[in-house]
Design brief:
This protein has 338 residues and is an alpha/beta fold. It has 14 helices and 7 strands. The chain has one domain: Rossmann fold (3-Layer(aba) Sandwich), CATH 3.40.50.300.
Length: 338
């Protein structure tokens, strides 16, 4: 006699095998024909297996979204930045720091060269701020959710990442976050963006003999939109309610920068672990540890940026000066330094 409870817990493969024994008909064959007339049955079984796994993944993702977006009457730590402003570095640092502090891993990420931008950790406090980017089929389910820390710790230490207002933040209300704003000096930022976007097929049709006007125009528009929003939102707030960090300070004075971020986010400051995380997320360590060609976008090739600087630097500076973009940068930097 079939135990119904145990039977329902089985995946579709074993359910079919159990039914096959009872009926004397092989519903789950030893060999699947993927072509010809026999492939019809293969497609039926494939769909049964596929959708069973999809529904399980859906259940896990939905549960995870509820978990990360709980308010618990706590303001959520959040990092906001335009692209190429240090967000990858900060995200990786805090993932490493989380692993080391809770003895989950050694803090060293593995890079997925096929995805071009995916850094993998055993665990991370980093969360995404919008629904769309939280529906990730590649996410691996944690079998023991609170093995190394509890839910209360997670909710206190979670760190949201967003490009808002350049992208949505629809799982959180902006009034309920502690915002850290990462910003980069416009000319240096544009060079990095320009170098990365030249690989983007969308911009290929906008090339001219000297400069890609579309990249420059779109980048200036995004930079102004980002800085203008945050200046307007933060200008009447107390300094204890937000933090602004210049990319140059983040790179040139990393230890002090991360100590200040930890202090602002009310995270424990452990000097040795902070320095360890800075070291293992440095460009030098990461590329050496990788032992193969890096295909991602976190580290710009200095030679490429220098070449772009030499080719379009004069014209680019003219465009930036006429756009008034420097004033947007100074405005938000000076806001925090007042």
């Amino acid at each position: 006699m079939i135990n119904i409870k145990r039977f329902l817990k089985l995946d579709i493969r074993w359910k079919l095998k159990r039914i096959s024994k009872k009926l004397g008909i092989n519903l789950y064959p030893n060999y699947f024909k993927t072509s010809g007339f026999g492939s019809f049955y293969y497609r039926i079984i494939f769909n049964l297996i596929f959708f069973e796994k999809v529904f399980k993944k859906k259940k896990y993702i939905n549960k995870n979204i509820y978990k990360i977006s709980k308010s618990q009457n706590l303001k959520v730590n959040f990092i906001f930045s335009p692209p190429s402003s240090g967000s990858n570095y900060v995200r990786n640092f805090f993932s490493s720091y989380f692993e080391l502090r809770y003895k989950i891993g050694n803090g060293i990420p593995k890079f997925d060269n096929y995805s071009t931008n995916r850094w993998m950790y055993s665990d991370t406090p980093i969360i995404r701020g919008d629904l769309f980017n939280n529906i990730v089929l590649e996410d691996i389910k944690k079998e023991e959710e609170w093995l190394f820390y509890n839910e209360e710790i997670f909710l206190k230490e979670r760190i949201g990442m967003s490009r808002y207002p350049l992208q949505n933040i629809d799982l959180f209300q902006i009034e309920n976050v502690f915002p850290l704003i990462l910003i980069r000096e416009p000319y240096d930022w544009i060079l990095s963006i320009y170098n990365n976007q030249l690989k983007n097929s969308f911009y290929k049709n906008f090339n001219t003999e000297s400069i890609n006007e579309k990249i420059i125009k779109d980048s200036i528009k995004r930079y102004k939109k980002f800085t203008d929003f945050w200046f307007s939102y933060l200008k009447n707030k107390n300094h204890s309610e937000y933090m602004v960090l210049d990319y140059k300070n983040l790179i040139n004075n990393s230890k002090k920068s991360f100590e200040n971020i930890c202090k602002f986010f009310k995270l424990p400051i452990e000097d040795e672990k902070i320095q360890r995380c800075i070291n293992i997320n440095s460009k030098e360590f990461t590329l050496k540890n990788m032992e193969h060609e890096f295909k991602g976008t976190r580290f710009s090739v200095d030679a490429n940026k220098k070449k772009i600087d030499e080719e379009i630097g004069i014209e680019l500076k003219k465009k930036l000066n006429s756009s008034g973009i420097d004033e947007y940068y100074k405005k938000i930097i000076n806001l925090y330094n007042l």
